[in-house]
């Protein structure tokens, strides 16, 4: 007997409704499964992008002077000295913004003066000579800033001055000067001020994910900032971060009555906040996909059970005229395979349509066909699994049933 | 008759309790997931000042880089904020019934009677019309007058929350507080006010709390404040050596809104903007094609992507899920009804009409849908409660108000239940009513 499809097909066509309903469920399930996995995969890739910094052991303090007595630069010097003197602190630096902290400062860089040549929007970290060590980034080429190269802080009066030197991330250097060594090259800001790349570091994540710029178009500049309050990035030894955070918060709040502490946050907090939408998306999509597949399984199982119970007599007859148990099991498995195939064919079209809509919305590459193939295999497997138990029950129908009610 | 049908339905449920549970559970799950996503979507996309949608307009002009648009995702749109010179020139036209220019600044308040140490406070530096234009409710006092916008008096308005923190909630009108260590007199305290989304300034997060302190914009110029806590965007790096340079620059940092009561004033305002644009264009500014916009609130929210794509995906997925649940229920109902065909055949033979059989099965379907909707609503409440707990944490965004169960959610749930019952039940009930009874009687 073997895999005889024709009788299964003709029986299916005679009693379509239930099969059509299951096939439609499978089609929707395929569209949901394939696109959900695709989106989740993108999000996981994004969330696991390397940060290039020691974020687990770092935190950010933001302070703001509010009286006319407040002197920004001396206060900053004193705070940094205090922070670096603490037991358990690896290093500390003044900082305009921090990795993943959202608040972002950026500028355009050009490879030629007068806004010519390759052009990129670049986020910058304004830190002192301790910046690299505090971030936990490492030099790939060139050198770090020396203490005597750090310029006076940015204030409103010198906001548009540029810096003579900068340190670029590997990706930034490669994009500005493809194919050549960027070390020692000169770049220009909008106004045509020149700066030399004196160091190249590993890719460090920017304060925010921006559409305008990649996450690793980042540079360090040798100048701190007191324009929007004064911030500090602090790196601690592993395990001491939270204790040091509260110690620092208490000390800084009391040490100077002319300022307030706006915010003391770990980089871990910022990281969670930055990726919260992605994590929500992930949880939601996985949950809904699992639910859809579960409901689908229930549907397949239900239909098969119903078919078995209404066909008991026919099954018995087939057994009586020489059909083996295996033939009965095959029958229901083939029936399920046919329904799943029909569902999957419609589902492919549906999945591609949804994928196309998503690619328009998110400006993502079109759905990969591997996902589709994977989704089809998964649904086939699940379908066969769901029909297994009713098929076994059908095979257990004794041949004598055929003789009972005739 | 209905009572009899209900008893029949109950009997049928008892015969197959597992199957009944599956159907009710599937409908409940489908409805609850839909209600939760729709509630969040509704809260995000709602226009919190819909009654003024034909009066309030965000003002924008495209002064950006001739070589590239301000936002590459929306190349047709001008930057969402204005430069100081353009905003003040347009406000001086006198055409709008009301107009407001504003930005967000982080300040520090001290000197409140219930306050022990200086506290940071999100501050909106704004012109006087803010309160009347956006229908902001007052608990004590009022906003300041238009004359105070240019007057020498240091005035401020506090939010209800801030007034509780600084004065323990008592009427603080007339008291003096220090803001950035300067004295300001309180003229008003707002009542609860939390528009969702925060349409009037989406640059600082569309779902945050409104600011806690309001101070006349003029004080920003006097104290030489640039947005600290808002956003400043400059397309051309101009040499800025003084605050005056900053005010005169093409940097955009101010939100501007106008209230235009009718089409005529709107057209008048538009032509004023166009004339201003032409004059500036001749003088060498506004190098991009003319793009002067007066955008109503709902369009403004759409332009600024306040509802993100993720939420559309959530709603789409939830609908797909509900569809699968319903199709499943149709399948189960059909199987169950057809399995009972011999009994139905007997009922038909004893004189029940097709209509009677149809009604009987519809009652059964209705009972399933009702139970599903009830459980679905319960699950949705739980789901929203969970979301609320999840979102309220600051690293999750502090979006407390987004996931509230409101009347709209209940209406969604009821509508979905009715649609579900109709979608899942009509066909099986109709199908069973059409069965010829004779066949089923014969084989017994």
Number of helices of chain B: 14
Give the total of domains of chain B.
2
Number of strands of chain A: 13
Please indicate the count of domains of chain A.
Answer: 2
Unreliable residue stretches of chain B: none
Broad structural category of chain B: alpha+beta
What can be said about the biggest beta sheet of chain B? 6 strands, mixed, barrel
Q: What's the average pLDDT of chain B?
A: 87
> Approximately how much beta-strand content do the residues of chain A carry?
15-25%
What is the percent of helical residues of chain B?
40-55%
The helix count of chain A comes to 12
Q: Return the average pLDDT of chain A rounded to an integer.
A: 89
How do the SSEs of chain A run, as a string of H and E? HHEHEEEHEEEHEEEEEHEHHHHHH
- Give the quaternary arrangement of the chains: heterodimer
Chain pair forming the biggest interface: A-B, 61 and 59 residues
Portion in helices of chain A: 40-55%
The end-to-end span of chain B amounts to 28 Å
Strands side by side in the biggest sheet of chain B:
2-3-8-5-7-6
Can you put this structure into words, describing what you see?
The complex is a heterodimer of chains A (406) and B (444). By secondary structure, chain A is of the alpha+beta class. Chain A folds into 2 domains: 5-47 and 276-404, no CATH class; 67-257, no CATH class. Helices cover 50% and strands 19% of the residues of chain A. In chain A, the strands form 3 sheets. In chain A, strands 3, 4, 5, 7, 8, 9 and 10 form a 7-stranded mixed beta sheet that branches. A 4-stranded antiparallel beta sheet of chain A has the order 2-12-1-13. In chain A, α1 (5-14) crosses α10 (325-362), α2 packs antiparallel against α8 and α2 (16-47) packs across α11. Chain B has 444 residues and is α+β, with helices and mostly antiparallel strands. Chain B has 2 domains: 2-47 and 308-442, no CATH class; 63-290, no CATH class. Chain B has a 6-stranded mixed β-barrel with strand order 2-3-8-5-7-6. In chain B, β2 (98-110) and β3 (119-126) form a beta hairpin. The mean pLDDT of chain B is 87.
């Amino acid at each position: 007997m073997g895999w005889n499809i024709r009788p299964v097909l003709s029986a299916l066509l005679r009693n379509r409704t239930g099969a059509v309903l299951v096939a439609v469920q499978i089609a929707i399930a395929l569209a949901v499964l394939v696109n959900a996995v695709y989106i989740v995969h993108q999000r996981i890739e994004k969330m696991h992008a390397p940060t290039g910094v020691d974020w687990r052991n770092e935190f950010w303090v933001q302070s703001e002077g509010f009286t006319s007595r407040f002197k920004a630069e001396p206060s900053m010097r004193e705070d940094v000295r205090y922070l670096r003197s603490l037991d358990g602190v690896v290093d500390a630096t003044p900082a305009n913004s921090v990795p993943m902290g959202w608040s972002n400062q950026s500028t355009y860089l050009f490879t030629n003066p007068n806004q010519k040549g390759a052009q990129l929007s670049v986020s910058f970290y304004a830190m002192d000579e301790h910046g690299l060590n505090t971030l936990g980034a490492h030099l790939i080429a060139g050198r770090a800033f020396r203490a005597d190269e750090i310029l006076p802080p940015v204030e409103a009066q010198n906001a548009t001055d540029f810096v003579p030197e900068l340190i670029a991330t590997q990706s930034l250097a490669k994009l500005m000067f493809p194919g050549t060594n960027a070390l020692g090259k000169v770049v220009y800001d909008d106004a045509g001020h020149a700066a030399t790349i004196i160091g190249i570091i590993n890719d460090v994540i920017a304060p925010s994910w921006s559409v305008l710029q990649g996450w690793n178009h980042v540079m360090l500049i040798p100048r701190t900032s007191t324009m929007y309050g004064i911030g500090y990035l602090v790196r601690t030894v592993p395990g001491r971060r939270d204790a040091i955070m509260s110690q620092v918060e208490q000390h800084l709040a009391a040490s100077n009555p002319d300022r307030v502490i706006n915010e003391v946050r770990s980089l871990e907090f910022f990281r969670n906040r930055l990726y919260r939408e992605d994590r929500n998306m992930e949880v939601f999509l996985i949950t809904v996909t699992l639910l859809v597949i579960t409901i689908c399984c229930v549907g397949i199982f239900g239909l098969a059970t119903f078919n078995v119970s209404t066909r008991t007599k026919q099954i018995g007859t087939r057994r009586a005229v020489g059909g083996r148990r295996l033939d009965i099991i095959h029958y229901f498995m083939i029936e399920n395979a046919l329904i799943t195939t029909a569902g999957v064919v419609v589902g492919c079209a549906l999945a591609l349509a949804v994928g196309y809509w998503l690619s328009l919305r998110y400006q993502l590459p079109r759905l990969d066909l591997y996902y589709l193939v994977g989704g089809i295999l998964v649904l086939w497997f699940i379908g066969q699994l769901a029909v297994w138990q009713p098929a076994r029950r059908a095979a257990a129908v004794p041949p004598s049933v055929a003789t009972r009610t005739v | 008759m209905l009572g009899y049908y209900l008893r029949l339905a109950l009997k049928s449920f008892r015969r197959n309790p597992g199957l009944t549970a599956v159907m009710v559970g599937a409908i409940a799950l489908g409805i609850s997931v839909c209600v939760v996503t729709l509630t969040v979507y509704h809260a995000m996309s709602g226009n919190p000042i819909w009654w003024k949608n034909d009066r309030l307009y965000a003002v924008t002009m495209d002064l950006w880089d001739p070589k590239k648009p301000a936002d590459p995702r929306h190349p047709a749109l001008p930057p969402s904020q204005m430069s100081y010179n353009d905003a003040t020139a347009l406000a001086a036209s006198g055409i709008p019934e009301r107009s407001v220019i504003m930005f967000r600044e982080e300040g520090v308040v001290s000197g409140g009677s219930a306050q022990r140490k200086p506290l940071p406070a999100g501050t909106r530096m704004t012109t006087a019309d803010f309160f009347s234009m956006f229908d902001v409710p007052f608990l004590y006092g009022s906003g300041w007058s238009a004359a105070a916008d240019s007057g020498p008096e240091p005035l401020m308005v506090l939010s209800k929350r801030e007034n509780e923190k600084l004065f323990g909630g008592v009427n603080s009108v007339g008291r003096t507080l220090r803001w950035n260590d300067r004295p300001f007199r309180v003229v008003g305290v707002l009542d609860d006010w939390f528009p969702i989304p925060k349409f009037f300034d989406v640059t600082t997060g569309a779902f945050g709390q409104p600011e806690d302190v309001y101070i006349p914009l003029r004080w920003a110029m006097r104290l030489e404040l640039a947005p600290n806590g808002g956003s400043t965007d400059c397309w051309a790096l101009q040499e800025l050596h003084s605050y005056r340079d900053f005010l005169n620059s093409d940097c955009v940092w101010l939100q501007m809104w106008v209230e235009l009561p009718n089409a005529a004033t709107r057209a008048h305002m538009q032509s004023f903007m166009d004339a201003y644009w032409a004059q500036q264009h001749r003088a060498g500014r506004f190098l991009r094609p003319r793009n002067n916009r007066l955008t109503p609130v709902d369009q403004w929210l759409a332009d600024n992507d306040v509802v993100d794509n993720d939420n559309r995906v959530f709603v789409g997925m939830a609908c797909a899920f509900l569809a699968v649940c319903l199709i499943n229920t149709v399948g189960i109902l059909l199987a169950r009804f057809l399995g009972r065909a011999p009994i139905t055949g007997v009922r038909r033979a004893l004189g029940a009409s097709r209509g009677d059989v149809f009604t009987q099965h519809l009652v059964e379907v209705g009972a399933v849908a009702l139970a599903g909707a009830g459980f679905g609503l319960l699950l949705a409440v739980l789901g929203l409660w969970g979301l609320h707990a999840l979102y309220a944490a600051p690293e999750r965004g502090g979006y407390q108000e987004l996931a509230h169960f409101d009347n709209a959610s209940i209406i969604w749930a009821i509508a979905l239940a009715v649609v579900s019952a109709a979608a899942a039940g009509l066909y099986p009930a109709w199908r069973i009513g059409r069965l010829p009874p004779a066949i089923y009687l014969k084989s017994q």
